[in-house]
Amino acid sequence: MTGEDSLEGAGLAPPAAGAEETSQAEIHESWLARARHSTAFWIGLAIVAIAVVFGVTTPLHSFVKPENLLAIGLNASVIMLLGVGMTYLIGAGHLDLSVGYSLILASVVGAKTMVALGGSALEVQSGTYANLALAVTAGVIVAIACGMGIGLLNGLLVTRLRLSSFIVTLATSGIAYGIALILTSAANVPYIPNELQDDFGGAKFLNVVPYPLLLALAIGGVFWAVLRKTRFGMRTLAIGSSRDAATRSGIDVNGHTLRLFVMMGFLVGVAAIVDISRNANTNVAGHQTDNLQAIAAVVIGGTSLFGGIASIGGTLLGTLIPVMLANGLVQMAVPPFFQYMLVGIILILAVYFDQRRREKSG
Amino acid sequence: MTAAAGTATAIRATGIVKNFGHLEALRGADLEMASGQILALVGDNGAGKSTLANIICGALIPDSGDLTFWGDRVDVQSIAHAYDLGVGVVYQDLSLALDLSVADNLFLGREPEEHGWRRFFGVLDRDRMRNDARAALGVLGIRVRSLDAPVRHLSGGQRQALAVARAILWAKRAIIMDEPTAALGPKQSGIVFDVVRKAADDGLAVLVISHDIPRMLTIADRIAVMRHGRVVAHVDARAVKLADVIGIMLGQEVA
Lengths: 362, 255
What we know:
The complex is a heterodimer.
Chain A: H1 31-36, H2 39-57, H3 66-91, H4 99-117, H5 121-125, H6 132-160, H7 165-184, H8 194-201, E1 204-205, E2 209-210, H9 211-229, H10 231-241, H11 243-248, H12 253-279, H13 290-300, H14 312-331, H15 338-361
Antiparallel strand pairs in A: 1-2
Chain B: E1 9-20, E2 23-34, E3 38-43, H1 49-56, E4 64-69, E5 72-74, H2 79-84, E6 87-90, H3 102-107, H4 117-120, H5 126-140, H6 156-170, E7 174-178, H7 186-201, E8 205-209, H8 213-219, E9 222-227, E10 230-236, H9 242-250
Parallel strand pairs in B: 3-8, 3-9, 6-7, 7-8
Antiparallel strand pairs in B: 1-2, 1-4, 4-5, 9-10
């Protein structure tokens, strides 16, 4: 900001400066000029580019068939849900590394609740739940409550003990995983009601859009609106931008941070239900890379690791990239493991650009 | 708020003591701010100016001493508490959220909401925020490229002006400013102080901490001089000479 000592540079116009009253006129940039600065715009372009490349290279252009694109969305839906919550936390200057293992614990207790309330052992094992509605409802509630409970624990440790969210969630991640393995003896929970998969996890709205994707997009839409349009969203980014400024503005920073962690936990619970609905099984051995994938999607999508800047749209798009890479590589008969390398490289680029943007604008 | 009578005592600090470990920052400081007046708080580095201001605005709790706000003895617990009592602050570091827009920063913590069902969800009334922000900045003669632009994109002077504007917009009865024009050139400072003057004329009690004593002599009504953790003199800004103020600051007898 050097060399801006002129009156205009300092932003103060002399009162009654002259005839022209242009001083108050705001310059509105064209949408294209603004889009150029939006990471979501660039990530969207990257996705189109990936789609074009795979569309051309896959046999029979199978990659760009609508059903394949919807399958990609379906495969991204769990990470979308996690990424939405992560966008808020990173936007507020925090991290949650526990989402993957919290998801396992939430899915285990949710599944166990369903099995326990479903009916007699014989009924449950034969796949005919006597109390289907009750069992599923209770299982969903318990899974979400479990996720929120872990979120509450994370939030309390971060706000009350003033520990770094990085360490806290790394620790609770281990705790959640341990409890999940103890509860299940490291085996998956059997006899989850098939209806969960038939009517939701594997079902499609109007026979076109997979329900889990629809749910993830609907929740993404709600959280987008909250972030952009409400006091809660604005204060979230204010905290991430400057904790001191937020505190001095009278914002209850600790209370707000606690709510963000509980909100993340809620989304973990929802993601857990989506996960067991899709697979009709818990996946105790999986989800190791969920937190990496969610954080990568958030950062690739333009949310700043420094806090203060966040984009739900960018996150939703960001979740698609690893899934698209995996899907396309498989169809080209290339080992899908390349996706991990590519995502790693993209993540490094995204973080680098975020950092450079910060350095440039002080 | 109300056009208060010129010299009604607004805030009185009596016998304020504050230690930081072995450091005695304040050793029984007394200060009196009047509604409708600008009080300049001057003194050498380490005299205790910022500490005293921070106690009045709730950022620090005194070890002992009394605060009286508009006749009532108060134990100011926090910045939010002082704010509720009508005291606004411009911080030395400005306390702006650089990633948020100009309008958002002006209203942070006091965001207007839409009515009806949208209020239930805490939906911001961004039209009102923009309009009120435009009006508030217009009064100050502050120009920004866009009210929607992040504060990060503003120059140092623009940020300073914004922080002052925010305090003036929200202070109900008093405003505390710690070096409000430190980053500004003389002309821009003049404009800010014109606005501060106007705020005082509207009945606000204003406390300005500044190293710029010559300017304080011209813009303030009264000057409080601090030395070694005490306020050693309250003088009329128009009746005192620069040499005298500096003499008091340095502990010399006034001729």
